[in-house]
Amino acid sequence: MTLTTEQEKAAYSSGSVAVIAGAGTGKTYMLAERYFYHLTVDGFSPLEIVACTFTDKAAAELRSRIRATVSQRLPDRFDLLAELEAAQISTLHSLATRICQEHPEAAGVPADFTVLDELESKIWLNQQLILALTELPAEIYQEIFYSQLGEILPHLIADPIAAERAFNRSINPENLIAQMQQFALSELLGNSQWQLATETLHQFAGLEGDRIELARKTAIQAVNSLKENSEPTNALENLTKINLQGGSKKKWPDGGFTEIKEAIATLKKLADKEIKRGRINLDIGEFDHKLTAILPILKQAFMQVREFLAAAKRKARLLDFADLEVYALKALSHPEVQEYYWQRWQAFLVDEFQDTNPVQGEFLELLNSKAILTIVGDAKQSIYGFRRADVAVFQSWCDRIQHDSGKRGKGGEIVELSTSFRTHESLINQINQIFAPLLGNLHQNLTAFRTEAPYVNDINPDVNTYLEAYTVAAGEVNDINRCRQAEGRHIARTLKQMLEQKMPVYDKKTGGLRPVKPGDMAILSRTWDPLELYGETLASEGIPVVLSGGGNLLDTREAKDAWALLRFLADPTDDIALVAVLRSPFFAISDRTLFMISRSLLTVEGKNLSWWEKIQMEQKPGFLEKPGFSAVEILKQLLGDRTVEPPTRLLQIADRLTGYTAVINNLPGAPRRLADWRGFMELVRQLETGNNDVFNVVRRLRQIAAADVKITRLPLEAENAVTLMTIHAAKGLEWPVVIVPDLTRSKPNYSPSVYFDPAWGVAVSLSNEEGEKQKPVLYVWLENLQKQREDAEALRLLYVAFTRSRDRLILTAASEKGSLLDLLRPGLNAANISVEKIPLTAEDLFAPEPPLPPLLEGDRPEIIGFVGSGLFELPVTALSEYTRCPKRFKFRYIDGHPGTGEGMAIAQKIGILVHKALENNIRNPETLSRFNSSLFPAQIQEILSLVQAWDEYPDYAPYRQGNISKETKITFKIDSITFNGVIDLLGDDFVLDYKTDQIIEPHLHRCQLWVYAAATERPQAHIAYLREPKLFTYPRDYFQAVGDEVKNIVQKILQGDYRAHAWPSNCQICPYAEICEYAYQEIGDKMVEDDLAF
């Protein structure tokens, strides 16, 4: 690759140079060439050159690029290649670590210190802060609550140098009020929505006396008062009080009635928002004086806690990343240390300089006062404010280099890299037009190396289709979730259309065009929140996707499953952990089965047993078992192994015994699930280092959760799938097609307990007697500054997202106003980009269904039978249900469906109370009604008449007397199913069952009565039909055939054979007829029936 003129100017500059490198302008290639220039022209050794980036990955890439350059162009210089391996090409944190290691005394750190990684640092700090708070003197807590200090101090400790300087800054809040009011007014009057609305007020007028005309004049008067800064608080309040009710279109002969109402509504909304922000109506009050009083106390607490933490770190010989910067700066404050590095390092190259924080800027200044400096950055891509990065640091260094008068012996210059090798001309021009008014002084027009677009619009070549914007037209629908589904479906349809039409894209490797692939596409969002929905939507359209990472690993289903297993192994009495494990893919026990288990568990008088103790004592065969698979035995084995195996090995054993990863590999989103499983395994492996005890790992996991530490999920390689990731994660990457969605999602309202700034001071929010938060003037000022920084960074974040695209860019939002879209709107207008509407459809009412994983290729046995039921226990009456209709049996006993309609429910209530009355000899209606107060008197009377039939019918007389037992419980096992039942009457040689059925159908109950007779070894079985009344006795030889039939039915249940008996007599009285797809339907005088058996 040949350097451009701009790259040559930067790479071959004889002195210091600040390189403003736009997106895709080849800065890494230029940096390698700059390093080579120092080696060859300046004659520096690699050991005299420092190259810094902000990630280890970027540092490794830069070292590789430099190594390749030297190998190709100086193949005989083995000395340079050897020195390159020891050269300081690293992150800034690694550079700070080296300074502290080489000068520990000057830095004030132990010589053998260890650097805590981000995870360990947060856990350690959370623990030590609790200890530090307990050491503070009691008088501090007389002024500041413990809970408040617990919120404030972590913010201050995270940036101790800035916090200390802020405490030393004193600002009179009265001086801020006028500045704040003026700034707020300027921002309000400059708002594009405000300006459009005020212009509308002067475009139309109604007739005198019309209410809306009066509202228009009131609004104009208020707007003028704000322009003149005349009683702005009253003007805002007057705007919010305008009544838009009434008025008549007839009194607006030239039109504008609706437009004026909408304009005033916009002004009211903006005025109300400004009042709530409290910037214009600021005044010195009680809480400003209170802040002044508590700041010295808060400073005392900060200094004592800071010293406590420093002492604890010295004792443990530990440093975190923030410490490295602080102590490196301290070491460099010694002249002899500065001189050491001035002589040692002759040139510095710092990449991504826009992400530098002020402390890093200071220690770089002390390091390279006499060296040649090359900084590379782009203020438009400064997006790490949450890591304390400050774009002003880069801007000040650019000015410093440009105005250098020879401090380093060689003058400096600024070079702009503005030729984009990524994006084609048509698209880059539109991006330029959008961001020119948005970024202001930061903006840099990019020119495209590729002048031709990869395709044209065949229908209308004059219409540019390289940058499109869409919002969901919600209309009166007030359901944001439905709108987001509509947005997701539009994205999916758009990408699917590109793939089906084989839209051409530019191939960087060949320099030609080829059809687009899923791997050429990326969806980049500000947060991870919407990406899962987009992934499911694309997957439902058959488009492969990969959620590359993001979110908190501990919030994933796989991490929760594995963590629950470790918690149970650490403490078998943890019932919640055990149930979580049982219902997870480890064992896949259904909630229905777990409920059945909970009702059947043994109880021991006087002892509060855990689930684990109870299920071990349970003696019922088949309990928590499947063929060759016992949950209890597996858990017993793991508990036995916990004393000899580390937690990672325990998880591996559990996976081998249960097939956990095989299960999740066949669920939607399998690659992401497997990556999260591996990620949790890696986390556990890290936590068990030094102490591989399961109790220790569980304790540390709890500490991580308590400290609210976010564990990064493992990234996934996209391969040939659409990439879903955040804009921050996409920094430095590119794709032919980029979608930037979710542009109207609001950020959560968050007011931290403290704001601090070295230039302004420290301010905390306070509470009144009602517990309501109150904001002193300085707090409002600093909050406003933070809001400005966040809005400016949001625009830069959008710039980063837009410039990831090579060929096509699509913007989407779930609503027409809000958040990023509002910030972006002036730029879209400047570029003449219209925002199209996405219509809502009925399809958007339903969440997308992710497809099942594809079947494996190759020969494999085909499953043609039924899937087993997994049942191990049933009531005896379930046999009658299966005999009537297996599908009805499935609805009731497998699915647990209650059925539809009230008829069957009432009949069951009547049958239950008849049995209750006969069992307890109840014949009084008042006593009977106490068992079910929902029944009407007529129904109670019906029950008593059925009971009377038993008492009086002559055929029943032999069974009312003699040696009989009522309500006898039985258990009878057939194959692997245990049947439980209650025999209404048990005699010496018979069993008898009461029936309150309307129709006499003894053949439907033959299996039930056979089980009763077989379980009690009684030769005879009877049914007493109470409505006729009638006594039915089963012939003895008949029962022999029924026994074989029962065993056959049990086999079908175990196999999962639930084919419907869709007969008219069954379906007409079935409580599931309305939801059963096999139920018969009447068509005229005919019936549509499925496989009638007669």
Main beta sheet, described? 7 strands, parallel
Beta content comes to 5-15%
Shape category: globular
| Domain unit count | 6
Number of helices: 43
> How many beta-strand runs?
33
Mean pLDDT: 87
Structural class comes to alpha/beta
The name of the CATH architecture of the largest domain is Alpha-Beta Complex
N- to C-terminal distance: 84 Å
> Poorly predicted ranges (pLDDT <50, ≥5 residues)?
405-409, 860-869, 1083-1094
Topology, pairings included?
Elements: H1 5-11, E1 17-21, H2 27-40, E2 49-53, H3 56-73, H4 78-86, E3 88-91, H5 92-102, H6 104-107, E4 114-115, H7 118-134, H8 138-141, H9 146-158, H10 160-167, H11 174-189, H12 192-201, H13 211-227, H14 232-240, H15 257-277, H16 286-316, E5 318-319, H17 321-332, H18 335-344, E6 347-350, H19 358-367, E7 372-377, H20 391-402, E8 413-417, E9 419-420, H21 425-439, E10 447-448, E11 467-473, H22 480-500, E12 504-506, E13 513-515, E14 521-525, H23 531-540, E15 545-547, H24 557-570, H25 575-583, H26 591-600, H27 611-617, E16 625-626, E17 629-630, H28 631-641, H29 647-658, H30 660-664, H31 670-687, H32 694-706, E18 722-726, E19 735-740, E20 754-757, E21 761-764, E22 766-767, E23 773-774, H33 777-802, E24 805-813, H34 819-830, E25 835-839, E26 873-875, H35 877-884, H36 886-894, H37 903-920, H38 925-929, H39 937-952, H40 957-960, E27 965-974, E28 977-986, E29 990-995, H41 1006-1016, E30 1020-1025, E31 1030-1033, H42 1036-1055, H43 1064-1067, E32 1081-1083, E33 1086-1088
Parallel strand pairs: 1-7, 1-8, 2-3, 2-6, 4-5, 6-7, 9-10, 11-24, 11-25, 14-18, 14-19, 15-18, 19-24, 26-28, 29-30
Antiparallel strand pairs: 12-13, 16-17, 20-21, 22-23, 27-28, 28-29, 30-31, 32-33
